[in-house]
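ok so dumb question maybe but i'm new to this and my supervisor (M.) told me to 'just get the structure for Elongation factor P' and walked off. so i did the thing. is this what she meant?? sequence i used:
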Amino acid sequence: MKRLIATGLAAAAFAATAAPMVQAQGRLGLLEQGEYVCALPGSATGPAWREMDAHNFAITGASSYRTDKGQGTYLLEGNRVTFTRGPMKGHRMMLLSSGLLQELGKDDKLGRLRCHRAGPLQD
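this is what came out, is it supposed to look like this??
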């Protein structure tokens, strides 16, 4: 009986320490499929946005994306997106709302580049 209680206590202690680690990483998810257009803020005297065609991408499904330079994969963990393979490897973004992303710098501060879902996938 003592052994059963000790085993139960050990399991409870392990679960209590493991749960915060899992929660700290965030839930895995998927971005909405479609074409994403990226832009930088404009100026008060010119256009409101300056599109950055070289940064555009498409989410094609199952943690996959494509650009003009090739295909790759991404990981959505909580509200953070990390491009893990392909032409955007290492690029990180923050999911602000459904279909709206903003780049993350190496210091985890939000950058100026924003990408929004512009519509369904184009062939």
